[in-house]
Amino acid sequence: MSNCEDTLRQLSQALDQNPNTERQAHIAQWLAHHSECAATAQTWLFVDDRLRGAPLATPSPRLADSILAAVLRQHRHDRRLLAALAFVGSSLSLVPTLLVILLALLWLASRVQPALLTTCTKLLLDLLRSGTTVLFALGSLSHTLAPWTLPLLAVGGGSVILLLTLTLARNTTQVRTS
Amino acid sequence: MAPHATDPAEYRWIAGAKAGNHQDFSRLIQAYQTPVYNLCYRMLGQREDAEDATQETFLRAFTHLHQYDANRRFLNWILTIASHHCIDRLRKKQIPSVPWEQNPGAESVSSPARSPEKTVIARQQADEIQQWMQQLPPDYRIALTLLYWYDFSYEEIAQVLQCSVPAIKSRLHRARKKLATLVPPQPTIHRTFPRPTPSR
Questions:
Q1: What is the pLDDT of residues B36-65, one digit of tens each?
Q2: Residues 6+ apart with CB under 8 A from A159
Q3: What is the pLDDT of residues A119-132, one digit of tens each?
Q4: Which residue in B26, B107, B193 is closest to A19 by CB distance?
Q5: Does the pTM of the predicted model rise above 0.90?
Q6: Taking the CB of the first residue and of the last residue of chain A, which one, N or C, has fewer CB atoms within 10 A?
C-alpha cells in the first residue's frame, strides 16, 4: 500500500465484505505508522459501527391497509377501463355487420313492398346531397385557408386517432383481470 | 424480516397475486412493507414521503407482477422498484433535505424491552444517522442503504441499481469519504475491522 487513499480504499472494501486476516493485518500495520490516515480510518470505523447498529425504520400500522385500499382502487379502475375498451371495440366491430344486416332487410322489404325501395332511395339520395353540401362547404373553406390545410387536418386527426388507439391497446395489455 | 424466495408460502402468494387474488397480495404487503418503507425513508428522509413512496412501489409491483422473474428474490425485485421510484422522485420534485429538527422522532426506534435511557440514546443515534444520510447524494445514499440495512452483496446492489460492480465499490468508497467529512473526529475506538453483520 503506497498511500492513505489506497489504504482507505482497501479499508472500504474490507468494511463491505469480511476481509482475510492477512489483509487486515496489512492494513492495520500500515495505519499504525500513519497517524493522520489512522484518524480518518477511525472515523470510518465509527460510522460503520453506527450504520451496522441502526434498526430498520418501521412504518405506521395503518400503512398496509392504505396500500391494499389503493391497490383495490387501481384494480377496479383497470377493470372498468377494460370493460369500456371491450364495449367500444365490440361496438366498432359490430357496425359493418349491422350495416350488412340492414341492407339485407331493406332488400327483402323492397321485394315485398316495392314503394319502400323508392322511399329508401330518396332518403339515401338526400343523405348524399347533404354530404355533398358539407363537402362543398369544406371546399369553399379551403379557398379561404391554405390549400393544404384540410389534408393536413385530416392527417393530424388520423394520427391522433392512431395514437389513441395504440395507447389504449397498450393499456389493455397491461390491465390484468382477476 | 421478509421470507426468502425459496419460501414455498411466498411462491404461493406471488402466484395467487398474479392471478388477481388480493388476499395473497395483502400477505406480500405485510411481509415486505417494512423493508420497502425503510428504503424509502432512508432515501426521502420524511415519514409521509416514505409512506407515499411505499404505496406507489406496491402499486407498481401489482401492475407489473407478471414481469417478476421467479428466479430472483422478491425482496430484490421490489427494492429495485422502490429505489428507482425514490431516485425519480428526488430528481423530479427536487425534494430538499429536510432539516432534522423539523422532523423529530421520525424514525420509530422505541421498543417495549428497552429502558427509557436506551430508547433516548437509540433515537439520538438514529437521528444522527439520518442526518448524515440526508447530506449524501441519492446515488451514495441508496448504495449505503442496500449494504447496511439489507446486507446486499456488491452484485445484488449492482443488479438493483443497474450498474457495474466496480461502480458500486467506488460509490461506497466515495460515500464513506463524504460521511467522514460530516462526522466530527472520533476518539480512538477499540475496533480494527468489521465484525460479522448482525441480522436485522
A1: 999 999 999 889 999 999 999 999 999 899
A2: none
A3: 877 888 888 888 88
A4: B193
A5: no
A6: C
Which candidate in A7, A42, A67, A75 is best for mutational testing of the B interface (most B CBs within 10 A)? Answer: A67
DSSP assignment string, B55-79: HHHHHHHHHTGGG--TTS-HHHHHH
Enter the DSSP assignment of B50.
Answer: H
User: Residue B141: what residue type?
Assistant: R
Cα angle B158, B163, B169; round to 5: 60
Q: Where in chain B is the domain with CATH 1.10.1740.10?
A: 1-96
CA distance A120 to chain B (A): 52
User: Nearest 5 degrees, angle CA B188-CA B192-CA B197?
Assistant: 115
Q: How far apart are CA B117 and CA A139, in angstroms?
A: 87
Distances (CA, A) of A55 to A103, A138, B98: 76, 72, 21
Domain formed by B114-183, architecture: Orthogonal Bundle (1.10)
Statement to judge: residues A118 and A169 lie in one domain: yes
Q: How many CB atoms lie within 10 A of CB B24?
A: 19
Q: With H, G, I as helix, E, B as strand and everything else as coil, classify residue B101.
A: helix
B144 and B175 Cβ atoms separated by less than 8 Å? yes
Number of domains in chain A: 2
ipTM for the predicted complex: 0.73
Which residues of chain A make contact with B148, given a CB cutoff of 8 A? Answer: 51-52, 54
Domain that holds residue A48: 4-53
How does DSSP classify residue B102? G
Record: fold of B1-96: Rna Polymerase Sigma Factor; Chain: A (1.10.1740)
A64 assigned to some structural domain:
no
